[in-house]
UniProtKB/TrEMBL annotation:
Domain of life: Bacteria
Name of a matching Pfam family: CarD_C
Protein's GO biological process: rRNA transcription
InterPro entries per the UniProt record, alphabetical: CarD-like/TRCF_RID, CarD-like/TRCF_RID_sf, CarD-like_C, CarD-like_regulator, CarD_C
Protein name: Transcription factor YdeB
Domain CarD-like/TRCF RNAP-interacting: 1-111
Gene this chain is encoded by: ydeB
Amino acid sequence: MFKIGDNIVYPMHGVGTIKAIEDKEISGKKQEYYVIKMLISNMQVMIPTGKILSSSIRPITDIMALKHIIHIFQDEESDKDLPWKQRFKVNTDKIKTGLMQESAEVVRDLKRMRKEKALNTSEKKMFDNTHEFLISELKLIKGITEKQIKIFS
């Protein structure tokens, strides 16, 4: 599915690059693994090639999908009436999908809330991490402009 050099998004971890595809024997079982270098944490992750679909790892979003995401980020309303624990769970579930649109919604909603009042520690950390993951992916999209990236800042 992926080849060496491909940039990917790994939900809850951010953007990474496929550095190698290796055969490894772990616990007596030989499997082929993607070796992924995560860009933000500088961590290396190994995922069996057979589990790549269930891991929700995906390629970097393309410029056409980004146009729709920019619209959502700027124009759509957020649901800020949920109690914070329920909102935190909804946002966590969105981030776990690995979809850029879902992450953009989380950033949008928390950014709007932050303007009205201080976020609690958990939501602040969620905002910071999700925003960093989002910006790191945006920078890798072919054809994106600095102006488009600034919309998400």
